Amino acid sequence: MINTFWQISAILVSVLALGVAFWLYTWIKAQPSSNETVQHVGDLIRKGANTFLRREYVLLARFAGVIAILILIFLPSPIWSGNWTKNLTMAFAYICGTALSALAGKIGIQVATIANVKSAEAAKKDIKLSFMAGFRGGAVMGMAVVGFCLLGVTVLLSFTKDSSAILGFSFGASSLALFAKAGGGIFTKTADISADLVGKVELGIPEDDPRNPAVIADNVGDNVGDVAGMGADLFDSNVASMAAALIVGMALAKDNANIVLAYAGIGLLASIIGVFCARMGSSKDPTTALNKNTYITTGVYLLLTALATFMFGFEWRIWGATMVGLLVGLIIGIATDYFTNDKKKPVQLTAEASKSGPALTILSGFAYGFFSVLPALIGIAISSLAAYKICEPLGGNYPLFGISMAAVGMLSIVAMIISNDAYGPIVDNARGLVEMGNLGEEALNITDELDSAGNTVKAMTKGFAIGAAGLTVIALLGTFMNEVNVAAAIAGKEIISGFDIMNPVVFFGLMIGIPIPAVFSAMLILGVDRNAQRMVKEIRRQFKEIPGLREGKAGVVPDYSKCIDIATTGALRELIPAGLMAIITTILVGFIGGVQAIGGFLTGNIVSGLLLALFMSNAGGLWDNGKKFVEAGHCGGKGSDAHKAAVVGDTVGDPFKDTAGPSINTQITVVSLVSSLLAVAFLSYSLF
Amino acid sequence: MINTFWQISAILVSVLALGVAFWLYTWIKAQPSSNETVQHVGDLIRKGANTFLRREYVLLARFAGVIAILILIFLPSPIWSGNWTKNLTMAFAYICGTALSALAGKIGIQVATIANVKSAEAAKKDIKLSFMAGFRGGAVMGMAVVGFCLLGVTVLLSFTKDSSAILGFSFGASSLALFAKAGGGIFTKTADISADLVGKVELGIPEDDPRNPAVIADNVGDNVGDVAGMGADLFDSNVASMAAALIVGMALAKDNANIVLAYAGIGLLASIIGVFCARMGSSKDPTTALNKNTYITTGVYLLLTALATFMFGFEWRIWGATMVGLLVGLIIGIATDYFTNDKKKPVQLTAEASKSGPALTILSGFAYGFFSVLPALIGIAISSLAAYKICEPLGGNYPLFGISMAAVGMLSIVAMIISNDAYGPIVDNARGLVEMGNLGEEALNITDELDSAGNTVKAMTKGFAIGAAGLTVIALLGTFMNEVNVAAAIAGKEIISGFDIMNPVVFFGLMIGIPIPAVFSAMLILGVDRNAQRMVKEIRRQFKEIPGLREGKAGVVPDYSKCIDIATTGALRELIPAGLMAIITTILVGFIGGVQAIGGFLTGNIVSGLLLALFMSNAGGLWDNGKKFVEAGHCGGKGSDAHKAAVVGDTVGDPFKDTAGPSINTQITVVSLVSSLLAVAFLSYSLF
Asked: Smallest CA–CA separation between B611 and chain A, in Å?
């Protein structure tokens, strides 16, 4: 039985998190802001972000509407086959998934675009206060994402008592993530690249110069890509890990839901405690402060889950598997940091290589990016094997449940991860606002320091997120098998025990699965490219046609909204074919080769997806920090040939790390969920 | 029973091929060469190539000696367990594999470094004769490689009657290929990059300028990388495909060896016919001539195998599977051509993107490189499934035999593929010689045209080679399972029927297998980088310390051999760690997770290896031709900003397409063979 205590506790913790988010919001709102320029530009950014969100959500609503109707008619089984309430539940769960994730994104953006102004203003006086505004702004996103996520899962589970409904919820979250992450990623890089190409390269005006029509779009991009997009991505991973654990666990025994809800709830509670402990201590080092939050949360989580396990008689082996996930997540994060931190060799050697021109910058970053996939994949390999072995004595499918719980463990402190991560774009925005509002040299130094801390911490949280996604998709493979077997039992077909690589149908699927993440990435990268070209044209047009703009005549402002419009329309237009390609291929493979081919397909997808996601994220981060390292005065410093080469590396890395790399996670999850949802259909109708 | 008729026929065809090689050699030798400069430079190139080969072979002999002793002691089972003759046979077969492949490489280089001089000389008068010198020079390599390969396999099989001995032979060929392909790849790109960096970029002297101390090393590199390296690579793939087919086939019935030998022999015969048909017709288009050779060979092969199947009562289904392989190989070749041909959109759009700077060149090439993996992988997926399904009615392991035969089919016309491929570096060299010997404008135009045809055809042959390697490694996975089961039967252990992805040990292996090709590539790329830095220093030193060199004073020559020396030493030094990393990881995974983990490991390796090999080869080819497209006067032409950007793309692509990409094939084969050879050990001693 699912214990009511844990359901109520989980709901209470979620509500508490939402309450904390509201309290943080009022705190931020209450911070002073007096500078008019800053406020005005802040308003423009907020409005721009809202424009994008509105357009995105309208498109999403149409898309989700169609999918919801399809679910209503066909899933989990065709509506004419009887059980229509199940279809209704799943369609409803799907809509909840998209809506709650969208709501979290909306709240996060709303607060982030206030917090940036407050952080900028506070930087005039005090680094500590400026830090707090940035961090607490990010924490609203963390609280909202995980609060809505846990609330949705628990409420749905309580009402339906059916873990499959969670699949619908998870698919909803994935749909939104696809739009938010890939769409936001295209938006932000469109604006970034074209602002630089015309502004810095052609006209030689500085970054964040208010004359540049794309400058507001660039700032908006930070918010829609790095705040809303990243939040949706982790909402998606978090729900998927819970869905996998619930489906695999509840198939073994209904009361396994208790431990999932308990550990997830404790994770959120630990993050709330971590958020309230966060402040810059006497050390005055923002990086230390951010890392300290993570360690506190981890420690609290470790203690509280042990306590709960002891008090409520949970299985210690499951606890062990969960902790393995958490610890390996930390290790992956630290290892990722090595490859992207400018105090370490890879970044410094890449910067050094830049002295011999851009080709060697690219080759060097490429090589270290390739190296960087090693620790994460070894981490995933060891954690899945360890979780399995720890839970093996429990028998049955418990080892697989152990792996799912390792994924839940890795994602347990995700609210804190999001808080640290969303801090980055907020202080980045604040830095821009300080510059545009002329708040003085000291404020600029302060926001520079805060910004740099954001970049350092980001690498670690990103490693965490990808590692967790890796474990989650394995759990989703188990979920798929589970769904197939439930259907097979009903249809009187043979139960499958796995996917044998030597089975030619599995192998067929494997081969087709490999190129999908590559093609998906290519479509997004070319999407950014095409979109940037459209925007470059518009920027050039404005500089040509608006009199006095180029000279910076007082009172002459560019048409910011036109650029935001182009980035928005283009991003959404470019994103659809990539998403459809992945979904349609899945459906084709399923109807050609059946469930075995899908097993291979998902494996190929996971393998090449993990490889490319890790490579692109890390190489991108490395090039970015390589450029910053040169700009800090090394290898010739700003303006040198090495700097020019490092800028090329950074530009190549931009869509890698902010568009394609992180979107691959979502692509894999979407494909996995589509497979699970259509398991019955693939089982019943296939060519081979 | 293995039929003596087919053994004798195969041996006769091999000897015929070697005879043809000798005849072609005398033909080439008999062509006139009068220009002294050309002859002198040609001598330098030949000597340089021989220096590299000698050093490489000495190192290889040591390495192979150690491995041979290890095989003698431990494989197929420890020598103290009784059957020492088997160990002796395998060690002997191993040495034969390295020696015959090395011999083929030596012959190929010897002739290629004569043919380049003759082709250059002939270009003064006649494009047809110049073409013939280039093509026939390449054909010697083709005949020698496949002749020795078939001869070795047939003789070994006839004497031992044991297909496992072929594994030893195949591993020998792989060891040589690792040295020749990866070592040659590092050599050629070291010379290429550093010659360009100091010569073209720093001093502004033209390419192939005799004052540049690295210019001879650069020409040597074409021979050791693209002639000897490529030959060793295809020797390796060809033997591996035959070994897999023989092992899987003979485990079913001894007389399956007949069909393997028959089809392989016919393939070589068809190639001989193709070589003799080769000439530039009235069309005067070298590309057409080269492609025509391929089509003629394919047609002859199709007809003759059908005839043999009919006359000797071979199974038609096996014939069908073989033809599927051949046809899919052609299709992959054509699809690959699309992504690297400068008459097609991807290259042209990448050149277009270069107008906005090097970052967009890189991003665009990256995206199309990602797209380009799709057709090849779909081709492999379909051909393996089709071969399997065609042979399914034969029962037992015949479907797997069918897949092995599809790989044999893809590689059947490999002698022609090598001839076409080795033609490229020969006429490339000829072009350099024409320039250095001042043979006139018309000769330059002729060799330019011949060179460009080489590039176009190369893409197709490369697609072929990678596709074949893909199918071969699947067959090798089957071989591994076969070896495990032979050992399991003897040891009284359970027979395995496959590798289940849901088995955590398989999954563990899968995750560890993914990063290996990436790390291997990274090590080679950084190896090129480090080596190039050493060489750049030496070139700068010579220009500084040799009086009159920079000014081009008559009689002053740089110390070419010093540069060749650096490239040689560095290449061999950088290659060893990469090779050992792959082999040691395999051994570790095997002893940790046993045969199931190795099954996963090989799968992960194949998946990420195919992805990266296809991507790097195609992206590299695309950037290369993008640069040539710009140089042909498009997008601003030579000297424009677009050209500078395109050069950056080309430099990044160089180690992709000539070092890392093609070496991955060999890395996968080596790892697969090590696994098969150690199957018994992994079965007996492992942690899990």
From this structure: 7
pLDDT at A438: 83
Please list, in sequence order, all residues whose beta carbon lies within 8 angstroms of the beta carbon of residue B353, skipping any fewer than 6 positions away. A529, B360, B361, B363, B364
CB nearest to A377's CB, from B378, B503, B511: B511
Q: Under an 8 A CB cutoff, do B652 and A607 touch?
A: no
The long-range contacts involving B347-351, CB below 8 angstroms and separated by at least 24 positions, are B347/B622, B347/B625, B347/B626, B347/B629, B348/B629, B348/B634, B350/B622, B350/B623, B350/B626, B350/B649, B351/B626, B351/B627, B351/B629, B351/B630, B351/B634, B351/B635, B351/B642, B351/B646
Distance from CA of B680 to the nearest CA of A (A): 20
Task: Name the region of A126 (left: φ>0; alpha: ψ -120 to 50; beta: rest).
Answer: beta
Q: Does A349 touch chain B (CB under 8 A)?
A: no
Q: Is B508 on the interface with A (CB under 8 A)?
A: yes
Identify from A202, A352, A354, A500 which residue to disrupt to test chain B contact, counting B C-beta atoms within 10 A and taking the largest count.
A500
Q: Extract the tokens encoding A280.
A: 């810059």
Distance CA B168, CA B517 (A): 23
B646, B628 contact by CB (below 8 A) = no
Positive or negative torsion for Cα A204, A209, A211, A214: positive
**Considering CB atoms only, which of B503, B511, B648 is closest to A380?**
B511
Predicted complex ipTM = 0.91
User: Is B14 in contact with B242 (CB distance < 8 Å)?
Assistant: no
Here the tokens at position B313 are: 């009562």
Phi, psi of B500 (to 5 degrees): -90, 120
Per the structure, the complete domain to which residue B371 belongs is given by 4-29+36-684
Q: Do A512 and B378 touch (CB under 8 A)?
A: yes
A344: left (phi over 0), alpha (psi -120 to 50) or beta: beta
Chain B residues within 8 A of A507 when measuring between CB atoms: 381, 384-385, 474
Contact B507 A607 (CB under 8 A): no
Q: Is A57 exposed, middle or buried (0-12, 13-18, 19+ CB in 10 A)?
A: buried
Beta strands in A525-613 (DSSP E): none
Contact of B603 with chain A, judged by CB distance below 8 Å, is answered with yes
Q: Does B599 touch chain A (CB under 8 A)?
A: yes
Is the pLDDT at A573 greater than 70, yes or no?
A: yes
User: Which neighbouring-strand residues pair with B500?
Assistant: A500
Q: Which of B287, B294, B249 is nearest to B267 (CA)?
A: B294
Answer yes or no: are the C-beta atoms of A286 and A430 closer than 8 Å: no
A591 touches chain B (CB under 8 A): no
Given this model, what pLDDT does residue B637 score? 86
- pLDDT, tens digit, 9 for 90 and up, residues B257-273: 999 999 999 999 999 99
Question: Tens digits of per-residue pLDDT, A519-535?
Answer: 999 999 999 988 988 89
Mean pLDDT score of chain A, rounded to an integer? 89
Q: Are B169 and B239 in contact (CB under 8 A)?
A: yes
Total structural domains within chain B: 1
Structure tokens at A285: 């080092």
**How many other C-beta atoms lie within 10 A of the C-beta of residue A9?**
19
* Ramachandran category for residue A555: left, alpha or beta (phi over 0 → left; psi -120 to 50 → alpha): left
pLDDT score at B527: 92
* Rg for chain B, CA atoms, rounded: 24
B351: distance to nearest CA of chain A, Å?
A: 14
Convert the pLDDT of each residue in B461-484 to its tens digit.
Answer: 777 777 877 888 788 888 888 888
Tell if the CB–CB gap between A377 and B521 is shorter than 8 Å: no
The single-letter DSSP state of residue B203 is: I
Q: Residues of A numbered 628-667 whose beta carbons fall under 8 angstroms of chain B's beta carbons: which are they?
A: 647-648, 651-652, 655
Residue A398 at interface with chain B, using a CB cutoff of 8 Å: no
